[in-house]
Amino acid sequence: MFEHFNTPEEIFSFKLGSALSMERDSLDMLTQLQSQAQRPELADLLREHADETRQQIANVEQCFQLLGEEVNDSPSPTTKGLAKEGASTIKKTDVSLVDDVVLAGALETEHYEIAVYETLVMNAEARGTKDVASLLRQNLEQEVAAAGKIKDMAQRISREGIAYRKAPHQER
């Protein structure tokens, strides 16, 4: 859509379209990670965030409507790269450790999404588009909450794995 940016509005529209692609990529990745998850509670967490991601997609699409712009999906090479890295790592990982890889990939993606939404909220507020900023802030808050849940689960699973490796029957 844009070959050269001439205004802050064009950059914002491009980044908003990139966020739409990011969320669509994330939804695909969440579905794949959910099928790879070994623990039911991890699959449930990913399913829950997939539902939130569907709402986030709708929020971004609504932002375009509020701005009076046509919905565009600008490329999001970062999320495609994160998905590719996660899938590649899972293929190389023993099944007993897959949840660690799933959680790492999910957390890395959440941190990227948080950064994207922080920038979009800041720019929407600077433009004076309060309704757009509000929708984007909702997405940001969901991403921050999801990152916290993923991190908590990753820490718990990591501690369980260390405890297992240090079990008395394995010490020498």
Q: Would you give an account of this structure?
A:
By secondary structure, the protein is mainly α. It has one domain (8-170): Ferritin, core subunit, four-helix bundle (Ferritin). Helix content is 80%, strand content 0%. The longest helix is centred in the last third of the chain and has 36 residues, at 130-165. The chain is elongated and about 50 Å long. The termini are far apart.
Write the topology of this structure.
Layout: H1 8-36, H2 40-67, H3 77-91, H4 98-127, H5 130-165
Count of extended strands: 0
Could you give me the name of the CATH homologous superfamily?
Ferritin, core subunit, four-helix bundle
Query: What is the chain-wise order of helices and strands?
Result: HHHHH
Mean pLDDT: 91
Describe, in short, the structure shown.
With 172 residues, the protein is mainly α. The protein has one domain (8-170): Ferritin, core subunit, four-helix bundle (Ferritin, Up-down Bundle), CATH 1.20.1260.
Task: Give keywords.
Ferritin, 172 residues, mainly alpha, 5 helices
